[in-house]
Amino acid sequence: MRAAVMTAYNTPLVVHEVPAPTTGPGEVLVRVMASGVNPLDTKIRRGEAAHAKMAPPAILGIEMAGVVEAVGGQVDRFQVGDEVFGMTGGVGGVQGSLAELAAVDARLVAHKPAALSMAQSAAIPLGFITSWEGLVDRAGVHAGHQVLIHGGAGGVGYLAVQLAVARGAQVFATGSPRSQDVIRHIGATAVDYTASTVDEYVNQHTGGDGFDVVVDNVGGATLDASFTAVKRYTGHVVSALGWGSHSLAPLSFRGATYSGVFTLMPLLTGHGREHHGQIVAEAAVLAESGRLVPRMHSTTFTLDDVETAYATVESGSATGRVVVLPNG
């Protein structure tokens, strides 16, 4: 099969023929129709993501959508011809989705939503799983909550807003001036972080009480700001980028709580993979009802121009999620 291979860190991916994988027990062989490209993928390629544990030579690509071509032993949820999607590899030494075929752990995938294309489906798993683990598993978001999501027009934030809205929360999302309409379009109150301070938008939207749940998808100073924007006593901050050194004093003085989200853990450890499959199944339900649609970049790419896809993500010029079509 053809695949894009990372032969060394910080060098272009090389597209060539490699042996096709075979299915083992508990696996399905998937013809990859679409592979999502995330900022994390580009960091792995540059050798800046040691936590992902992916060393060259390797096939990258964390999320995918495709068609089942073979079913291994001990798999009863899928059959040949099923369309599936999920967050299936590209870290922890597991083959990723920048290839024509991938043997994936069947626990990690769910049936693809018919309402979405292959490209759209491949743009969902990582961001939605991250959002679900933060909003649902950690913070228990529900109707009546006021939720603040930082980076509401970003790859994760855009899905997080839709998830929180679907669960009945009143949602606010920060973004740049040019992203305000995008945020409003998916049902959130847009907050221009360049035009108001944390204290100003907390006062404006919560009467100074703070938000019940604050989701940080940016890290750094934005996580620090989250600690001062959360509600006293019952508020909860969640972050997928809490990797720096931060003072917990602002959070402690509000009597609030914090949770970190590390979405890669089931792929790295093998534990909790069933839950990831369950989460993407929940994404499919929301997508089928029209309540979950990813924001897509205007151009799709193939294996032959995978470097352009990576450069688009790295440059920050993407207008939505970037997807590669390995069989395109």
From TrEMBL:
It holds the Pfam family ADH_zinc_N_2. It comes from Mycolicibacterium hodleri. This is Zinc-dependent alcohol dehydrogenase family protein. Keywords: NADP. One of its GO terms (molecular function) is oxidoreductase activity. The keyword NADP applies. It comes from the Bacteria. The keyword NADP applies.
